[in-house]
Amino acid sequence: MNQDYNNLYSRQIKTYGEETMENLKGLKILIVGLRGLGIEIAKNIILTGVKQVKIYDENICKINDLGSNFFLSEEYIGKPRDKSSLSKLKELNPYVDVDIFRGILEDKIIDFNIIIITEIMNFEKLFKINDICHNNKVGFIYCLALGLSGFIFSDFGSNHIIKDPSGLERSIYFIKNIDKNGIITIDQRNRDILNLTSGKLVKFKEIEGIPELNDGKPRKIKVISSNSFSIEDKYPYENYKNGGIIEEVILPKEISYKKLKEVFNVSYLEDEPEIIDYSKEGRNELLHCAFIAIHQYFSENNELPELNNKSQANEVLKISKLIYDNSKKNGEVWVERIENFEENIILNVAKWSKSEISPFCSFLGGIASQEIMKITGKYIPINQWLWFDFFESIEHLEENIDTTLYGTRYDDQIAIYGQEFQKKLNNLNIFIIGAGALGSEYLKLFSLMGISNNKDSKTLITDNDLIEMSNLNRQFLFHQKDIGKSKSKIATEQVKMMNKQFNCQYFESFVNNESENLFDEKFWKNQNFIFTAVDSQSARKYIDLQCTKYTKILIDTGTLGTEGSCQVIVPCKTSCYNDNKEIPQYSIPLCTLHNFPSKTEHCIEWALSKFSEFFEKPVEDLKQFFENKETFYNLIQNEETITNQINKLKEIKKLILFISENSFEKIIQQALLLFYENFEYKINKLLYEFPIDHKNKDGSPFWSGSKRIPIPIKFDINNEDCYNFVKYYSIILARSIGVEINDNKNYIEKIIKNFDFQQLESSTKINQERKEEIEEIALLKKFLNEFDLNQIDRQKIIPEKFEKDNYSNNHVTFVNICTNFRAKNYNIPKSDEQKTKMIAGRIVPAIANTTASITGFAAFQLLTLVTSQEISLIKNCNFNTAINFYQINNPSEVIYIEDEEYNPLLDGPSIAIPPKWTVWDIIDIKGPLTCQEFIDYMKKNYNVNVKGIISNFKPLIQMFLPNIKIKLPLKIEEIYQKNFQLREEENCLWIDISGDIDNISVMMPKIKYTFK
User: Fold this and answer.
1) How far apart, in whole angstroms, are the C-alpha atoms of residue 569 and residue 549?
2) Does the domain at residues 601-692+704-840 carry the CATH identifier 1.10.10.2660?
3) Is the pTM of this model over 0.85?
4) Domain spans of the chain?
């Protein structure tokens, strides 16, 4: 794979892996039908990077198609859908051949790897196409978006092979011990917990004493505890000496699928379908019954029922009822799972079967797109059928709503929700935080839905980030020409081309404490809905706090590869994001990172830390030194040790000499010294402290389990990797400090050959011997103070921060070289540049399919919330399309803060003041007040002894401090202004207090203190 390809697909490679990406590059796909569902699937699949996508839909564009096909506009009305969509689809990905299909469908099916049908067909044609696919090993997916309901059917033939069911990395463990009974205990020094279950397969390597186990043969395990297991086979376990690595083994699995005609009937429902939403038990059966009836109606009439045509909808109901009654008469099991034959469900399916609305197309299209990927053997295909509906979004609509259609792009939506509802959407003010993959999808959806179409309403979006190459395969609003430009600006410009009526405005700012002058109280209160499209927990926490302060509905969504989640937060009714229990962030222990790595990931993290140590931190210190010498001296006094202070000053001196002498040669020599220190000297030092035969206190070998015996590496001028370490180190450092670069190979090799390697060991020893530390600091400062800094061009001093997407800067290459020398030190498998880039660049797995699905789901929550905030109708969602896991449930109710005998946060009892409150409650206090007046007010009104006052996480007063008497007569806002500065327009502060009643800590809501 070339670098541009790797950059474009970096996040997708992280999700699927390189093998699957190679398989995708060979896929040829045919998509039939290009209304909303078809275009959504086409967009996602083209972004994914298959070889070829052919589209087929000769139907003429109508005005209502513009409500779901985002690549159509008024100019295409009256023209074929596929021709009208082609140019925009082609723009999505230069690596994919996109074209129109023409010919007889049945004759050309075998030219493709998979066919996706998104338009209803009669039974006879459907079954014929499916038969051809099934018999010729061509994947077949049939999916329909029928208003607020729909389905996906999947058939991958009679012998489909699943190579990788979950996509998760195989578990690797290090053996701590094998006892004489064959009990294998894993080493938990890297916080590893045995994540395997009995019956799983593993293989072994590097076991000393039992060579028979190192044959690579998969063996079935029996779990004994969280850190131990046994295997069935008998071996001379008493011979075990040391070491050993365990690797999980996943064997391919063959699945046989049935043809559509075999399972498009109610008898298929004898086995209970998997329930996705437990508030809708029996709904799958009812929907399946309705879909069969819809197809029967279509096969007889060659068209779907007209929108809201009651008589035609009743015909579908009659067919469904007949299917149900006959099954009931025959005692079929599936009927018993339907407690009540809800005729309105069948009627709703029929009435709106001709409509395609963008939220459902986005949701279903994302899942169907992911299903296509599974033809490669990656992940588990659905068990043939998947059914969905969002009928809860209409539960609170008034009866006899006006669904008159006036020939607009919103007709399909108006047919369901009505004219008055559409006006409500037109008037919404929405704030989207993040213009990446999620934010782009939200903009698309809201423009298609007719949100913020009135002149006094707006959808606002903010993002301070710039477009990178890796954004292009999951954010369809961005193109190659947009790289380096503002995400929010380009996204806004592109989405306005989809719907000129859409009032959308962009910002280029973080949403945090620093931007509260822009996103102030007036701003937040003007919004109807807040949507998060961010990828950091800290950002979510801050946004959630703002929404609770200003009582705003928040819809939070997130994705991680094939996983998606949506949480709806409604003021005073649901719990909020900050109520969620913290998920501890996994981090590599420092001792592992510095001395005992055991995995390639450890080596990558170490190399990344070295990059910062070599090129970022010292150059930042140098820059700061030039800006203000005295401030720099004051800052380094905060270092933990005097040794650290000395090292910083020495680094500054060294860099100044490099610059003043414009010496690329000395930088090369520095690179050689660093190679020796990191890959030879420090390894020898570690082995000196802990020899190979070193024992722990209990007599067990020190070098065992995850502690791998290191091997020092000598610099070899004939080794290309050694040469490249020196070359790229020198180029990066010289560039960062403005030294002239000479990357001529002969020149670099000449300096290396003339370098006295024999002096390295003695010079390193000298480096370790410190003079009197105070004296050394004084001498270093004397040199720096006397040096004429004017001879240095400060503008050329630019710290190099690790940047993953620009290969010309050599960052990834250098980190990968460091990684692999570190790996060689510890006999750990090497990393390629792609893996290094993924981990060092903190690339989060991201794919367009998941993003489309979760934003579609979230948009449905908005549609529900426009008319109702009842928790029973609102849905949260978690799904993983890789393993077909879907969990849809109602949000948790609001959490009340009450008295606690033991509060873990306070490590003791606590009193709730007022007696029962939630995060949505606010105490209003009018000022201005001095600190003493505020303290007296809290004592008089709440009997609380104030111990501390905090505003915006910044301490204003702490009663135990000696200078407290000076602060008490001052107004609260004066103290804030003095320390942190108030904006001129600010008239209030949000305050948290710490305090007690009779020495028992109190828990209180936020206080809004208004001082003017």
Assistant:
1) 13
2) yes
3) yes
4) 3-158+358-389, 172-249, 261-272+281-351, 397-472+486-494+502-561+852-867, 601-692+704-840, 900-1010
